[in-house]
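Single Protein Entry

Contents — chain, fold
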Amino acid sequence: MKTNSFSGLLLIATILLASCSDSNNVKMHTTVHKDGWCDREISYSTIMNQAQRDSMMKGEGAPLAYPIPQCLNQEAFMGTHTEMDGDTVTTTFSRSFRTPEEMCQQTPLKLNGARLQSKATLDKRFRWFYTEYTFQETFTCVGDTFKLAATDYAGKDVVSYWFTGQPNLVQGKSGAEASEMLSQMEPKITKWLNDNLFKTCFDFIVNHYDSIANPPVSRERFIALQDSMAKKMLEGHDDILEVKPTEAFRDFFHSDAYAMFFDEETPCGKKMNDELASRMNILWFSVPYTLSMPGTIVDAGTGTIRGDVIYYPLTGERLIPQDYVISATSRVTHIWAYILTLFVILLALGSTFFIWRKSKGKKD
């Protein structure tokens, strides 16, 4: 099967790798307890027919919904539970940890086959009437997967806003003004991605140049033509995914010598697919993160509070410009402190009244 565009290459790469593009079926929940222990659950759902469900139940070990998303690190868990609701099968992995630091040593998520790195802390402060708990988990930036930095194409704040929504650069602007600002940002980010995908392909070809049977130019000449080639390839296209690379290289070099790199049936084509997909998987990665804290939530950070649960969008895009921080603060009220304080106040008032009465009686 041959492909005619970069979008075709990426589509095939996604299907073959079955990587975190399936993460939209994955959800992660963290529960922080007053004593510092943390529980972490991660679940995923899939559609399975009757035969598949029967086979799952007859298999050895705990039944698991299939296929298992490759973005899950199964070794991070100890408990497993699977439920069936018609054709929908949901598996939940769980594990308890003594500290947030221990929990992060067993991060359950993987991106491009590597464990997603994070660090977490829990700060506990006693305030007499309440104890304040502040939990923070920081996921490590993965932007270095892209060889060209986004900040070389747009300002740091623009890049951060585009991928994370912070700082809010459109705050206070009208819809028209916000639209105008976004229309100025998008071409810069698109060019950044275009250039990165082109460079991925270009560098791959350079590194495998000896595999080309009859190259029309030498490796040195090929490298020297990089800028001209990129300009010609993107001519008439706003997005590199619209480009038909085999035709573009044929037109530029008047040769089909490079077609092998854009045919997924060839070893080089498959490897290039993997290279491209490793970049795009970051943009497709999305795992809703929910958090439960002890007591009443007073600050959800960048999250959204719904009932007693905080929701955070954990996406690959948010990991591109910088580390992604999830933080929340809650308070556990000390009823005993209010009772004791009231008792002390009443005792003080009673003592004052008793002394006053006694003093008044002596005068009389």
The longest strand covers residues 38-47. The CA atoms of residues 187 and 363 lie 90 Å apart. Residues 1-5, 7-23 have pLDDT under 50 and may be disordered.
